[in-house]
Specification:
- A two-stranded antiparallel sheet has the order 1-2.
- By secondary structure, the chain is mostly helical.
- Helices cover 63% and strands 9% of the residues.
- It has seven helices and two strands.
- The protein has a domain at 72-212: Orthogonal Bundle (Lysozyme).
- It has helices at residues 2-77, 84-95, 101-106, 146-159, 169-173, 177-186, 195-205, and strands at residues 120-129, 132-141.
- Helix 1 (2-77) packs across helix 2, helix 1 (2-77) packs across helix 4 (146-159) and helix 6 (177-186) packs antiparallel against helix 7 (195-205).
Amino acid sequence: MARRSKVSKSILTIVKVFAILCVLMTAFVAFHYYRRQAIQTQQIQEAEAVKREAALKLIRQRKAFIRKIGPIAARVDKSYQLLPSITIAQACLESNYGQSSLSQKYNNLFGVKGFNPNTSAVMSTQEYRNGSWVTIKARFQIYDSYDAAIRAHARLFQSGTTWNPQQYRHVLAARGYQQQAKALVQDGYATDPDYADKLIRLIEQYDLVKYDR
């Protein structure tokens, strides 16, 4: 009986030790699992915070650009039958809010082409041709300031092109920003078929009509 009792105690001890080991193993696995989950959650939160900060920085940068050129457009466009909101939206769209190489190097906000080698520079650009975007080399005008670029932009609509002085008659006749945006496409200013819609969205997103008042 004594031997049988010792065997039973030994088995019981082994079972207890095994149970303890199982509990410890389970706790170890659970700890590492939840620790890994916590690290992943933290990494996701940090990545989202970085994205939010980048988005806020981009918005601040864009608004700063608008505040910089807004008053210039409002002052210049009054005497040219143009809406400042359209000019500002065009500058935002065509210069990527002043971040394009063309605008940073040469103050060319509107992608205006040039012909005189002394006052222009050759750069790559994209144009919409035959239903798709293509990259080409073209010569672009150099300006000494944003003010000069906006004034030249306004004069273009007043004077038209060398081959058609009335090129932008629909733009000048339009009164609302939506009508003027669509008239730009109608009069052949842009090759992008979505150009007018893009301008309208920018004007409404940043409340650019306040510069028209």
